[in-house]
Amino acid sequence: MISWRKHYKRGLIAIGLLLSTSASIYAQGDAKNGEKLFKANCTACHALDKQLVGPALGGIVDKVKSEQNLDTDWLHKWIKDNKALRASGDKYANEIFEKFNKTEMTAFPNLTDQEIDDILEYTTNPPAPEPAADAAANGADTNSITSIEAQKRESMNSKIILISLMSIGGLLLWLLFKLRQLVKLQQTDELVGLNATRATSFGDIYNKYQNVGKGILVLLGIFAAYGLWNSLMWIGVYKGYKPEQPIYFSHKIHAGENKIDCQLCHSSAKYGKVSEIPSMNVCMNCHRNIAEYNGKYMEPGKDKAFYDGEIQKIYAATGWDPASQQYTGKTQPVEWTRIHNMPDFVYFNHAQHVVAGETAIINSYNKKNPDAKIDVVCKACHGQVDTMNVVQMANDFTMGWCIECHRTTEVDMNNGYNKEYFKNLHEKLKKQYGSGAKITVDAIGGLECGKCHY
Q: What pLDDT shows up at residue 439?
């Protein structure tokens, strides 16, 4: 009896030790700190609930333990230097490398053991969302409902006001009709005779004041001709034009919030005549690893689900399967609507402005617009693109607009391109305008017809 109790007691102790050892796998890290470290180091390639470049990491500790009988020490080695672990001949490490298209995971030798434990704890027991976030969401819903109710009340008030105005208008017309009847009843014979001599038609008025009428007709003809001429002059001017695109692309998020350089996407603007529309492969350079929107900025009326849906359109266009992390070969053309399009008879070279004229254009623009200075030459023509959710044509792009720029933009004589290309011209300009004179673009041929027209 004593022996049975002794073995029973030992069994309970062993089970307790086993459970405590198992539990320690999940309780040795700080999940909140692990969440910060995970977002800073891992989210480019991993998510908890789905495969990206690498596998889903939710419950990875338990998975490695149950499927491969490996503990957290193996995970520490893999995270710190997976290449060395594969080189040592580790079977599971090499299996993972082969499975994910031999994509080598970034090594993190700088992470301490405790920090790795924090990350693993986060993958096992991710902390619940902060109540404040839920409260904010509920507040947003409440605000949305309140806004809808306010709109309904405003609509009802507008209808009441409209009906009231129509009623008042009807009453005034009725009163006018009654007053007219009273006036007719009280007219004397003298008034009747006087009315007979008055003009009662447009023809009578014209015959009486025909000289004035002819003058008015001439003025109307002049105004009509001016209006026609003015409308013809604005054909092809589309300032403010901002068409809806097949895939929603916010320049405010990309160029504004994330500070992406314009020329990263529009690479030919610097060395080419045309700044082309980037191919979808350029989008995939980033969005191969960014499958959902987690930014703080939200355009009014749009939410995370909207942005995530637009990213899925990129995947559909390029034939990218985020689950397998491979291209399917089934692509769909994207019919972008072009916004800036110079006429065929106009020659415009982006490289000439972006390279040779960059400093001169930026300095000239900032002098003329001290309250809206620019830091990128692109903004001088295309406006503050980094603040636009939907890109629009920011300027007129007329011939007069270009000429005005050439007349007021001072040439950067210290520019290496100008110094070499206009080497002999510089001496001539110094003699013509004086050594200290400001030389603008028109002085170096900026107003010659052949510069811009074939």
A: 82
Residue 126 to residue 1: CA distance in whole angstroms? 47
Instruction: Kindly state the tokens that stand for 366.
Output: 């900032």
Q: Which of 103-117, 146-160, 377-391, 440-454 has the highest mean pLDDT?
A: 377-391
Q: Three-class SS string for 197-264?
A: CCCCCHHHHHHHCHHHHHHHHHHHHHHHHHHHHHHHHCCCCCCCCCCCCCCCCCHHHHHHHCCCCHHH
- Rounded CA-CA distance 122/58 in Å is 8
Binning the chain into helix, strand and coil, the percentages to the nearest 5 are 60, 0, 35
Name the token pair of 377. Answer: 């030459």
Question: Cβ–Cβ contacts within 10 Å for residue 315, how many?
Answer: 19
Which residues have C-beta within 8 Å of that of residue 307, sequence separation ≥ 6?
Answer: 248, 292, 293, 295
Q: How far apart are CA 444 and CA 431, in angstroms?
A: 14
Distant-in-sequence, close-in-space partners of 440: CB < 8 Å, separation ≥ 6: 406, 407, 408, 409, 410, 411, 446
What DSSP element (H or E) covers 321? strand 320-321
Does residue 320 sit in helix, strand or coil? Answer: strand
* Mean pLDDT confidence for 354-375: 91
The residues, ordered by sequence, that sit 6+ positions from 322 with a Cβ below 8 Å of its Cβ are 50, 51, 52, 291, 315
pLDDT tens, 253-273? Answer: 999 999 999 999 998 988 888
Give Cα separations from 95 to 42, 59, 101 (angstroms): 20, 19, 10
- Cβ partners under 8 Å of residue 30, min gap 6: 118, 121
What's the gap between Cα 111 and its chain centre? 35
Using DSSP's 3-state secondary structure scheme, residue 48 falls into coil
Average pLDDT value over all residues in the chain: 83
Q: Taking Cα atoms as reference points, which of 409, 394, 398 lies closest to residue 362?
A: 409
Tell me, yes or no, if the pTM score tops 0.90.
no
| pLDDT at res. 225 | 94
CA distances to 216, 223, 257 from 229, rounded to whole Å, are 20, 10, 44
CB of 389 within 8 A of CB of 250? yes
User: Which residues have CB under 8 Å from 403's CB, separation 6+?
Assistant: 442, 447
Helix (H, G, I), strand (E, B) or coil at 79: helix
What pLDDT is stored for residue 400 in this prediction? 92
